[in-house]
Design goal:
about 850 residues, alpha/beta, OB fold (Dihydrolipoamide Acetyltransferase, E2P), Rossmann fold, 5-stranded parallel sheet, 4-stranded antiparallel sheet, about 15% strand, EC 3.1.3.16
């Protein structure tokens, strides 16, 4: 142990004498060396205060050791000046007090709680690590814990084993305290009688009474524990009390061959809100895996292999979760209407929907009022841990006792069975029972037309294990074998190659050598291996959750979403072009579901059970058996409900407002920084029916009318444009002449003609009345014919055009006093002059071509 000077010495100090030399024994509080230090003091006489002065004097003292043992090395000599805290000696202690029990050194029996004036390090600070399961009073130092960890890892490597930490409640078992189960278990006529024959029981003292606990083992647990114990050293880590954990262990491991005494409960955990691997493995966790139905209490450590919660006792959940944060459930589906006959799965669904009855109402209401959408990750972890002061812990203990008493008094399973029986009483008899009754009467004869009045009705059982549960632990065992195999394959590959062949033959003493210890430096990380195996399952899968995450919950903090990300999935909040799957509720046709349906099968709309199957099998299972909303057409509008009134439907938080989707023609920027154009053959989903509903029904108006300016009359403008352009009967030569004319001089602008008093507006909107195409065409042909009879040239046409422009039109009154009829004639004459000019040019061109 290294001995340092203390911080309260009056530095600088000068070593004047060494009181001990290397090899000497040194007791606690015995002097190691003497030293000198200088200090300014005030000197003077008592009678004359003015004689006081500040002078510097030398003082002498001894440095005493707080350690005891033998001096092995001195790092100082006489005359050395020490200016700050420094190492002065190495002391070989007779006892390092590295292992303590209740403040007493296990090796020497010294009380480590004692302190004196010379104590700078408390004796209890030497041993702070607890690695035992059953007792928190046994502590050891970090060095001692490291040595123990090395021994444990070498022992596991020699046995080719890893470590597996197992949770109890809703991972491998589920417990319930409802007294109704005792009556059901002893009543052969009860529909749950057969399922309860596998339920075990034990009693615990709860308050002042003895409470019976009913324990249901997950199907296949015995085989699972036996097979996994050959590959893993198994530990129990539960947030239940130690008495509860010991009773469960006696049932699932009666011979103590699987878990032995490796049981850690909340009484020894050190935290009643969260679980930590460092509690059991403070030095190294590379060979440790965890199976638990809760990921949040482990802070989603990479060593965790999360499993689906076991829920045999419907709606009971984890009876030991009073100290844990509320479980993040998926949003419950709306209660379906009772059908005439229910299958086994449908009956269980009705029982699930009955969770909101009785005590569940308060929990659901409180859960819906809480939101964590704006809580940061750090705040989320702090809030999850909660307060752990003595008062808060006592309140939670009392709350758990009240919950158990409430479960005993209210009998929630009995209430759910009554709901199921009520549904059965309104339903038709079972098809199988009806078929049998039709064949034979109670006395063996053929059934008569009138059924007996006292015939027993078919009742559905509330408690049952579905087909998935029958094989769940078996599948979980396969996954653990894969990790075990991959771990030791990687470990063996990292070991140096053994000497074989001629080199080994030349060394005859090789066989007599002591076998080498396992190489701890070659140990891979089991967490990284498991992560690589899981991540490939959903790599490339882009998920969108819709209608399954409760309102007010940040989707990226939800357990199911985090679970999906550990398998390599990418989760988005809106449907985009990269979306491959929409995880939705069968009872809710949300906006995101409709968006996915518009993509014509490119996005798979599946239930959350598809995700659970992928998690279970560690592979991407087929979506066919889990597709929902398959009746939706390409535009996503088939069989959509007009409203959700009376159906108890809630949209997810992201579906409350309009759905935001990324553009289908999003450009991608490659490494060179040049944006690529969207593909021309990209299929764009166009819902013409939906667009037609948004088509404006009013006439088109000016885009920006003002208070002082009326909207433009577009109908009148179109009529004037058609009148100016003329008929479509014009041939190509006429268009050529127009182009020549437009190059020489600007075209004449058509003027708006005024109608006579008796002329009606054919459009009825105040526009200009125009003549038909037939009348305009005949007039142009007439002018063209007259122009062909003349003898003219292009020069004459040009001079005639100039003369026509300089000569005032007949009938024009300089004073502006012409009548309305004369103004109309004037406009017609101008139009006719233009027509004559065009016809003359066309005729001249035809004559030139004929020559």
């Amino acid at each position: 142990m290294r001995l340092f000077t203390t911080a309260n010495l009056r530095y600088p100090i000068t070593v004047t004498r060494l009181r001990r030399k290397p090899g000497d024994a040194l007791e606690q509080n015995q002097a190691l060396f003497s030293y000198q230090y200088r200090l300014q003091v005030t000197e003077g006489t008592r009678d004359d205060p003015d004689s006081e002065e500040l002078v510097e004097r030398s003082f002498y003292s001894d440095f005493t050791s707080e350690l005891e043992g033998t001096v092995s090395t001195l790092h100082i000599k006489e005359g050395d000046v020490i200016t700050k805290r420094a190492l002065v000696a190495d002391i070989e202690e007779a006892c390092t007090h590295s292992t303590q029990y209740g403040g007493i050194c296990v090796n020497c029996g010294k009380n480590m709680d004692e302190v004196n004036f010379n104590t700078s390090i408390r004796g209890t600070d030497r041993a702070t690590v607890n690695t035992t399961h059953a007792n928190t009073a046994l502590l050891m130092s970090q060095d001692e814990a490291g040595r123990a960890d090395e021994e444990a890892r070498r022992r596991l490597l020699e046995a080719r084993k890893l470590t597996l930490v197992v949770d109890l409640d809703q991972t491998v078992i589920q417990a319930c305290v409802e007294k109704t189960l005792a009556a059901w278990k002893n009543d052969p006529s009860n529909p749950n009688y057969e399922a309860l024959q596998e339920v075990r029981t034990f009693d615990l003292v709860q308050g002042n009474q003895l409470v019976p606990y009913y324990l249901k083992l997950r199907p296949g647990l015995e085989t699972f524990l036996r097979e996994m114990s050959e590959l893993y050293e198994m530990h129990i880590y539960t947030m239940a009390t130690r008495d509860y954990a010991l009773n469960v262990a006696r049932i699932i491991d009666p011979d103590q061959k699987v878990f032995a005494d490796r049981i850690l409960s909340r009484d020894e955990s050190g935290s009643m809100n969260a679980k930590f691997l460092k509690r059991l493995f403070p030095v190294n966790t590379k060979m440790v895996l965890v199976i638990d139905d809760r990921g949040d209490v482990w802070q989603w450590t990479p060593n965790l292999l999360k499993v689906k919660a076991y829920d045999f006792f419907v709606g009971i959940g984890d009876i030991n979760s009073a100290f844990l944060p509320k479980r993040q459930e998926l949003d419950a589906a709306p209660v379906p209407k009772t059908a005439k006959h229910h299958s086994s799965d449908e009956s269980r669904q009705i029982a699930e929907d009955a969770k909101t009855v009785g005590e569940g109402d308060g929990d659901k209401a409180s859960a819906e009022t809480k939101t964590n959408g704006t809580v940061s990750a750090v705040d989320h972890m702090v809030s999850m841990a909660g307060s752990q002061d003595q008062e808060t812990m006592q309140e939670k203990i009392e709350q758990q006792s009240q919950d158990l008493e409430s479960q005993i008094a209210e009998s929630p399973l009995l209430q759910k069975q009554k709901i199921l029986d009520a549904a059965d009483s309104e339903a038709e008899p079972s098809p199988a029972a009806s078929a049998a009754a039709e064949l034979l009467a109670p006395n063996g004869d053929h059934k008569t037309d009138t059924p007996p009045q006292d015939a027993p009705k078919y009742r559905h059982n509330l408690l049952q294990d579905d087909e998935t549960e029958q094989a769940y632990l078996s599948t979980l065992g396969q996954r653990l074998r894969e990790v075990h195999t991959a771990f030791f394959t990687s470990y063996d590959a990292a070991l140096p190659a053994a000497e074989t062949g001629r080199i080994a033959a030349l060394r005859p003493d090789v066989s007599s050598r002591k076998p080498t210890l396992p190489d701890l430096s070659a140990i891979p990380d089991a967490a990284h291996i498991m992560a690589s195996l899981r991540h490939r399952v959903l790599t490339g899968v882009h998920l969108v959750f819709s209608g399954v995450v409760p309102l007010g919950v940040n989707i990226h903090n939800h357990d199911t979403v985090i679970w999906a990300k550990t398998f390599g999935a990418t989760v988005s909040e809106s449907v985009a072009k990269k979306t491959t799957h929409v995880i939705a509720s069968p009872e809710r046709r949300t906006a995101k579901v409709r968006q996915a349906a518009k993509r014509g099968g490119r996005v798979a709309i599946v239930s959350v059970q598809w995700l659970f199957q992928c998690f279970m099998h560690w592979r991407r299972v087929s979506e066919d058996a889990y597709r929902i909303h398959t009746d939706a057409t390409v535009n996503g509008t088939a069989d959509l409900p007009n409203s959700f009134d009376g159906r108890g439907v809630l949209l997810s938080s992201s579906d409350e407002s309009d759905v935001l989707t990324e553009p289908e023609t999003e450009t991608e920027t490659p490494a060179n920084g040049t944006a690529t154009k969207p593909s021309s053959n990209l299929a764009i989903d166009t819902d013409w029916t939906e667009l037609e509903t948004h088509r404006p029904s009013l006439d088109r108006a000016d885009s920006n009318p003002t208070l002082t300016e009326a909207p433009e009359d577009w109908g009148s403008i179109d009529d004037e444009l058609n009148e100016f352009l003329g008929s479509d009967a014009d041939d190509s030569e006429t268009e050529s002449v127009l182009s020549i004319r437009s190059a020489d001089s600007p075209p004449s602008s058509s003027k708006k003609r005024k109608r006579g008093e008796g002329e009606a507006d054919p459009d009825g909107d105040g526009g200009v009345a125009v003549k038909g195409d037939e009348e305009e065409g005949s007039r142009l042909q007439k002018r063209k014919k007259e122009a062909l009879e003349r003898t003219s040239s292009l020069t004459q046409v040009a001079s005639a055009a100039g003369a026509g422009e300089s000569t005032p039109s007949p009938g024009v009154d300089p004073g502006g006093g012409e009548a309305e009829e004369e103004e109309e004639l004037e406009g017609e004459d101008e139009l006719e002059g233009d027509d004559e000019l065009e016809a003359a040019l066309a005729a001249e061109l035809d004559a030139l071509e004929d020559e």
